[in-house]
Amino acid sequence: MASVDAATLRRMSDALFIEKGLRSPGSTRFWGLLVLASVIASAGVVGDSTATVIGAMIVAPLMTPILGSALALVLADRSQVVRCVLLVLGGALAVVAVGMLLGWIAAPPDSFASNSQVTSRISPRLIDLLAALATGTVGAFALVRADISDTLPGVAIAISLVPPLAVTGLLLTVGRYHDAGESTLLFATNVAAIVATGTIVFLVFGVRGVAQESGFAVGRFHGGSLAAVVGLILLIAVPLTTGTIAVARDRSLAADARPVAEKWAATGKWQIASVEGRNGVVVIGVLGLPPQPAPTALRAALDRNGMRDADLELHLVGGRTHWCPADTDTCTVRDSAIG
């Protein structure tokens, strides 16, 4: 495979290494776009607007220091590695802070329980890691090959960086700490995938050799650096594997619970709006007019059909929520959805 030339390497370093100093053009551009992208992403999540969230993905500049970390690793430039990592961490915290601010202002009464933008980012799976690896490869390849750099906006949309962090901030404000951790895991998955694939692509294209010939400061590249990146991917794969199994279990639980719920609702001429499995909890949405079927009857029906170990969360029209724990025959009323 053809290697890059000195001009391409210079273009890459100028694009990925942000200048020092908060007032430098690169820094002001990065932080300005990041704050704006955070506001757009958070507003898009609160409004459950896919188009708005996609707009935030295009604007967000977080991929710059992440790929910069990969290039700095290849060049063994410790100062740039530290700077890029700090920019990623600082940027991530800034997005979470903006998300928390908007969460305090505009969090819905149901704590985002019915929000599709939130739901899609709190169950990371192995397939998300695979997609992130492919997307990170395309992003690094587009940087190396100027003739396909037009694909970068598509890469920005495909790789989810700012939206998961915005979701983290929003969920922290409503006390959904476990789900906030899951959205953070999705962000970490994408970061690790970009760094890993970027490092490999830059090595394959001979970036180190060109840098040495062109007078760039190039340190000694240790195999341990690459091993650490690969190890990070494997480490992240562990909770993703657990998440994949949990998602499969929840889908099976929802499939088993739906016919039971529909039979129960038919006794009172109610309609089942939704049936989901969430971390082993059966979550059912019901629509209809009073009188309502007894929630305890549904709890008993689930028990008879092999779902005795699953808690039940029943959302009725008007915002009332009935919570029926496993192995009990009683239900309690809550005013809003459980996170």
Can you walk me through this structure?
The protein has 339 residues and is an alpha+beta fold. It is 64% helix and 8% strand. It is built from 13 helices and 5 strands. A 5-stranded mixed β-sheet has the order 1-2-3-4-5, covered by helices on one side. Helix 5 crosses helix 9 (162-173) and helix 7 (126-144) crosses helix 12 (223-266). The longest helix is centred in the C-terminal third of the chain and has 44 residues, at 223-266. The model has no long low-confidence stretch (mean pLDDT 86).
Task: Give a concise summary.
This protein is an alpha+beta fold. Helices cover 64% and strands 8% of the residues. The protein is built from 13 helices and five strands.
List the keywords.
alpha+beta, 64% helix, elongated
Uncertain ranges: none
Q: Helical element count?
A: 13
Could you give the count of β-strands? 5
Strand content: 5-15%
Q: Which word captures the global form?
A: elongated
Gyration radius (Cα, Å) is 24 Å
Approximately how much helix is present in the residues? 55-70%
- Main β sheet profile: 5 strands, mixed
Mean pLDDT over the full residue set: 86
Helix and strand content put the structural class at: alpha+beta
Strand order of the largest sheet: 1-2-3-4-5
Give the CA-CA distance, first to last residue.
50 Å
- Order of SSEs: HHHHHHHHHHHHEEHEEE
Write the SSE topology.
Blueprint: H1 6-16, H2 25-46, H3 50-59, H4 63-75, H5 78-106, H6 116-119, H7 126-144, H8 152-158, H9 162-173, H10 177-204, H11 207-213, H12 223-266, E1 271-278, E2 281-287, H13 295-304, E3 311-316, E4 321-324, E5 332-334
Parallel strand pairs: 2-3
Antiparallel strand pairs: 1-2, 3-4, 4-5
